[in-house]
Structure formats: C-alpha cells, structure tokens
Amino acid sequence: MQRTATFLWHLVPTATLAIALALVSPGHLRAQDGATSAATTPARQIVISLTERRLHLLEDGRPPRSFPVAIGRPGVAIPLGDSRVLRKRRDPTWHPTANQRRENPALPASVPPGPSNPLGRFALDLGWTAIAIHGTNAPDSVGRRASGGCFRMLPADIATLFEAVPVGTPVRVVSGVVSQVVSGAASGPAILPPPQPAVAVAAAPSPPPIPLPPVAPPLPILPDPRCATAGAPLRRMICTVPDLAALDGRARGLQQRRLAALPAERRDAAAYALLQEERRFDDRITALCWVRRGMEADPVVAAAAKACLGDALSARLEEAKRR
Predict the structure, then answer these.
(1) Between 316 and 208, whose confidence is greater?
(2) For the chain, which has fewer Cβ within 10 Å, the N-terminal or C-terminal residue?
C-alpha cells in the first residue's frame, strides 16, 4: 500500500505539467509577450521561453516535451511573439549574415554540411529573417546566451524536434517563464513544477526578465508582378514555392519601401536602377541554379534548384538590408 501511494505521489507533478502546459494557448499568453487571442490551441506548437532558455513542444494527445536551448548573446536582438516553421533543412549549409561578416571578416562565405557547420545536422527556418531553430557544433553553448539570434539545440534534441514537427507548425517566443504565462482569473499565476521533478531540490530564485531591444517591424512582402506570365523554370519556381516567394517578396517590399521614401526627383532614376538590378539577379540565378526547361518536374533537379534559389534569395535579401 505504501509503495502504491509513493508511485502516485511521483505522478502528480508530471500530470500537473501536462495539464498546465496544455493551457499555454495564444489566448492565455501575456500581452507583453506579444500574445494574440485564439479560440483553440493548435494540434502541435512550439513555445520558447527566453528566461528559462528552454523550448517546449506541445502536442495534443501526448505529454509536453521540454529541451534546453541557447539564445542570442547580450546585445543581439531576439524576436518575440508569433511565427511558424517556414522550412526544414537536413544537413544545411551555413551562410554567415552581413552582421556576422562585419564582426568577423575572416568568416567564409558559406560552410557546407559537416562537423564544423554551426547549424549541425538539422535546421528549422522561422518566419523571422535569418532566425532558425537548429543544432550546433558547440553543444556546451546550449542553455546560455551565446548565439547570433537563433535558437541552438543539442544534436539529439534537434533530431527529435525535426522529426516531430512539420512545416507550418506555430512557434511562439515569450520573455517570461512558461509556468508564469498561464494565469487564472482570481487565483493568480499557475505555477508549473520543474521539468524533471523526480527528485526534490531547493528552488533557486528565478532570474529577472531579460531586457530586450525593440524588434523591428516585419518586412512587407511584395509579390513579383511577372509571376502571372513567368516562363523561365527558375522564375516559375520562385513564384510557386511559398518559401522562395516569401524571400523574394521581402526583398521587393524593402526596395519599394525605400523607393517610396525618396524625393520625387530621384525616384525615377532609382526605379530604373532597381529594374537593372533585377535583370542582373535573374542572370546570376540562371548561371548558378540552371535548370533545363522541362526538367523542373524531376524531384532531384527540383530539390537542387530550390536549395540554390533559397541561398541566392537569402543573400539578395541581406544585401538589400545593408543599403
């Protein structure tokens, strides 16, 4: 009888965690974390707590899972609020951002898959520019403020997450502790037990919330007006693949926003310069990512072309931001 009571006592914290985390829906998160109301919780979602430095995977029908993550180092802007998984990459190639190249000019233009790749074996690209959940070749950094803005995970953990979540999975980044963003009307905040409560330990005081710099508004996405009549295989691929269309549209939106801010007497010349730049970009991707007409239906050819276009469009967007 005593053994049964002890077993049930250890089940209580785990059950409480499952119930409380299941309540972390967009409608219950605090307004200061950029929450939006929603009628129902998605079947699967990711919640990342900057204070806890943990990623919580919430799924209908199974207990929540929690993993440690590395977040942006001091001085690096970290996005808050809602996004989603835009793309999944296995054995990704790492391309340093413009800021990283300025900080360390010795960085290579890219690092192919392998043991020296900072992204590890898997990457989940999010809706924020140049922000991803990925593995790492520096596992000691996980759990610390050590990244350039992305969320690093241990190799085994990112492999588990990569297989568990599909493209489109909602992602929410909050500044507070996940156990404190579930609130009741009269009883106050709902406190969750520790992620692994099998052994009772003295509770350490929670660190204060991390002050974060303001997050820039999202870039507008401007579709390519040529998509309705696009004939070239690569341009058709950019128009029809959502991830590629979003990268292309953000670069166009940024260019048009800057064009609109120019004085009227300079606008025509700048618009012509943009048109010439568009033609040069099309020439570059034709040379880099060439696909023979009619071969884009081949899955191997299409996958290689999409990866090549994704790298070229990402570089173009970074270049547009530097101007």
Answers:
(1) 316
(2) N
